């Protein structure tokens, strides 16, 4: 009799219809995705779906996802992975997405929760006393700096200063911000505004304006993600018919590269130490060092100076008998669990430069300690890296003008663009180019290189970066003396 009774109870339990899809708790708040039985629709026999938030036995409801009969809703609640072919399965996925969205929102609000605070954040009806649009912006700046992205953090800080400078007459409080405020800021960056002293301030270039607006867009999206601006009109779009704030596109850098012949000329200039005799004796060694750093960036898969400064003689260097470096791109650090790990084959030209300007190999030591000198803190490292970037740019531009007669205004970014462009023009696989530059962040270094591109293949590809078959380039010929030209002609006869 007991068995029969238990079976009957189980059947009764299974026959009950579900009106709660999912429930969770964070801090003092219990929240659920439910069918709200308080407000049935007349003549439809349907009920609205809502998120219910409960604190201290008091509840607040927020309608989120359509209307359903109790039977339909219960069917969705009871679906599992075996029901993927059901017509209602897409609704289940929608419910999952909605619940996870609001779950994340609640968790971002912290432990000091109230129904009023939750309502204010979700509806956007009022600002939160303890935070604001400006506070989210400031936290982003701090986050970037903490993660070592100092340059990006400084860019966000400059954008915020511009925002506050232009909108000084009507400072933004809480989350009382909309499209009109962003438009006024944008107009101020274009035309300028008068400050308290009547001076015109705030006017900047379109390039900088684009950078600042993109920073603000990130902050706006962050606020939406946190629920602060959930019901506020999105202010950014480059579609003309949308009548929203258009963000100028950045200047293309396609022309900012040196072809293989010119990179070869720079390399030969370094090896041959062909510098103007008119230069001060203490200036030439500094130019030589900076000139060495630049082709290293180029030959090391186009990495930047921050990566160059952090490069070490690690275990991988010794496991390959000094044939390759391994490093993680500083710029992509923190974007994935494994980061963007890159293998660099030490081709013969790269080795020759290293022999001159790199520190002797020592396990765990920096390859280029002179870049950072004795910098220890993140701030000191950032300052040293920035200074060395400036040194390389200024010295290379002087070298190009005085020694080579070039007009190019070379900077560190040219090394990266030159690597990508020259590898592509040499017919190298685009996948290899992307992975060798650290674009891919989802796979380990083993998957990326040691399987797909063995070290000998990497040597083959990277050897195409310079033209060292002893054939003189046009730039070489232009630099030759009359005696050298005569010798070349005799050799060709």
Written overview of the protein:
26% of the residues are buried. The longest helix is centred in the C-terminal third of the chain and has 27 residues, at 378-404. The model is unreliable at 1-15, 334-338 and 441-449 (pLDDT under 50). Strands 1-2-3-4 form a four-stranded antiparallel sheet. The chain is α+β, with helices and mostly antiparallel strands. The protein has three domains: 2-123, no CATH class; 133-242, no CATH class; 260-490, hpI Integrase, Chain A, CATH 1.10.443. It contains 21 helices and eight strands.
Key terms:
493 residues, alpha+beta, 3 domains, four-stranded antiparallel β-sheet, 21 helices
Secondary-structure blueprint of this entry?
Blueprint: H1 2-15, E1 20-26, E2 29-35, E3 47-55, E4 58-68, H2 70-77, H3 89-108, H4 115-123, H5 133-146, H6 150-166, H7 179-191, E5 193-194, E6 200-201, H8 206-226, H9 260-272, H10 284-299, H11 305-310, H12 315-319, E7 324-328, E8 341-345, H13 348-357, H14 369-372, H15 378-404, H16 412-425, H17 430-436, H18 445-451, H19 455-462, H20 474-479, H21 482-492
Antiparallel strand pairs: 1-2, 2-3, 3-4, 5-6, 7-8
What's this model, at a glance?
The chain has 493 residues and is α+β, with helices and mostly antiparallel strands. 51% of the residues lie in helices and 10% in strands.
State the secondary-structure class: alpha+beta
Estimated radius of gyration: 31 Å
What CATH first level of the largest domain would be assigned? Mainly Alpha
Number of strands: 8
Low-pLDDT runs: 1-15, 334-338, 441-449
Strand order of the largest sheet: 1-2-3-4
